[in-house]
Specification:
The protein is mainly alpha-helical. It has one domain (3-106). It has helices at 3-9, 11-35, 40-91, 99-106. Helix 2 runs antiparallel to helix 3 (40-91). The longest helix has 52 residues, at 40-91. The two termini are 33 Å apart.
């Protein structure tokens, strides 16, 4: 599999890693600014801007990563449901639940 195809399939994980890396870099920049002054009044802008923004980026990256994992789990469950549905159709049996219940439960 070439890199472009892999990147298109895993765009959400790439975005999560970029957000996490951006959060770490932002926190390091904030730490660098805070560590070079002894005055609290000069440290506060670094804590407020870099600290809060860095934590926001870390949280957004973690949420994006979890969303990618959940999307994969839903994809696997859909494949299993399709496999069971096709097996039941070949045997001539009806599914225990109607299709609209399965679709409504995903929302």
């Amino acid at each position: 599999m070439d890199l472009t195809r892999w990147a298109r399939a895993q765009w959400d994980r790439i975005a999560a890693w970029l957000l996490i890396a951006g959060g770490v870099v932002t926190l390091l920049v904030g730490w660098w600014g805070v560590s070079h002054t002894a005055y609290l009044a000069e440290q506060m802008p670094y804590l407020i801007s870099a600290g809060m923004f860095g934590l926001f980026l870390l949280g957004l990256g973690a949420t994006t990563w979890l969303s990618a994992d959940l999307r994969d789990e839903w994809r696997k469950l859909d494949e299993l449901a399709d496999l069971l549905r096709s097996r039941d159709e070949t045997r001539g049996e009806a599914l225990p639940y109607p299709e609209d219940v399965a679709v409504a439960s995903r929302r």
